Amino acid sequence: MRLLTRIASGIVGIVTGLVIADALLTGVSFTAVGLVEAALVYWVIHIVVTIVAFRALVREPSITRLLVLPLVVSVASLAISARFVDGMEIEGGSTYLWTAVIVWACTAVGHLVGHRINHKRKLEKELARERERDQRNSDSDA
Q1: Domain around 25
Q2: Which helix (DSSP H) or strand (DSSP E) does residue 89 occupy?
Q3: Nearest to residue 77, comparing CAs of 7, 9, 14, 4?
Q4: Count of domains forming the chain
Q5: What pLDDT is stored for residue 66 in this prediction?
């Protein structure tokens, strides 16, 4: 369930970012099907590129790479998605950059929300176990 929550929150963040970019930026347009396809393609590519990029980062770590890497991964994922998804168009380098920033920010928020949901579920389970244990202890004392 935790993995499903993380996946869903990431995809919702991507879709939200793409919709906001479409609304705010003139060089961005999607069809309804293109939006769904773009979000799924972006998500898969983002995972693959992130894994490859972080392997490179681990070899030669630096704060600059750590800060720039998510944006580069976002731009690369966006460019590859735009290349392969028919219902998605992004015109101009600065539009790619701003779209990537918007999608990255929305995805980050989505991941934070997903993490918070998972953390809340974990705390609720721990609390339920603690109540069960207290109930058993009070039953054995009686």
Answers
A1: 2-141
A2: strand 88-90
A3: 14
A4: 1
A5: 67
